[in-house]
Design goal:
Hypothetical protein af1432, elongated, alpha+beta, single chain, five-stranded mixed barrel, OB fold (Dihydrolipoamide Acetyltransferase, E2P)
Length: 332
Amino acid sequence: MASATSPPSSEGVLDEIQHARYRVGEPRGEQLGASQTIATLREQGEVDGVFACTRKDRQLSRAGTPYLTVELGDPTGTILARAFNDADLLAGRFERGDLVRVRGRVERYRERLQVNIATIARAEHEQADPADFLPSAYRDLDELEGFLEHLAGEVYEEPLRLLLGSLLADKRLRAEVRRAPCSIPGQRASHHAYLGGLLEHTVGVATLAHELCVLHPRLDRDLLLCAAIVHDLGKTREFSYGAEIARSAEGRMLGHVELGLRTIAPHIPGTLSGERRLALEHCVLMHHGPDSAGGARFASAEALALHRVNALDAQVKGAFEQGLGAPASSGV
């Protein structure tokens, strides 16, 4: 996955535009194509484009009249924008966190560029794809899906194999697995906090689980591997996407573990016994450990194993995202 487009090096532009704060796998700025970007804005130039609204403040001038201050962003940078006319009317047409369609003109104020807004409103779905504005995985998602299918093929118990086959055949669910992150960027203990992060994490956890079964052959290999593949499916419903990644209403109220059990349930084949279904659901319920499961104790070695490999992949990835793996400075 290519990194965000670099802004031009024209004199003064680097001082006037705050460059992208997007992290990890940076968003696909080049996919914005010929559309207007922050980095291409020039003094006295017309603005007509879609941007992420990352700040929205209603303020008062010295004369007591209201105006709007907005921060606009895309993968190439951020810029302040202000609306001095019809501020309250325009404010009702969008919210912070929306992707917005903006028309106006670039002006210079106190030696910095800003946009004088003529109109601003929430962008329609066909005008903007959140994937163009949000951090995305570096790794190739098609390749990761291939790994996921291979790992699912390593499950031989027929009812569990049928369950995974049904889940993987659900095109809508597959698309959501490709899109979902594991966490919201910037939050404490976040990991895989970018689009495609769920798929990457799932492959990582399932791979670790597969290898652990080689070291500990007494583990129920089919149960553990199946649980590793399905343990975070609730994250496909936990988030919403706009200018930023946020939690959906059901994500806030139910959490991804409960959502995961609900996602799995319609795909469970009738041939899966009640005992095996309970064992699988216990692994999913316990994958964050007893403290996140109402104090319940691990009832199987497979549930404990899933908890450990999930934490290992999440914590190592989180350490890299938070800079722990950055090479030490040579001091030169």
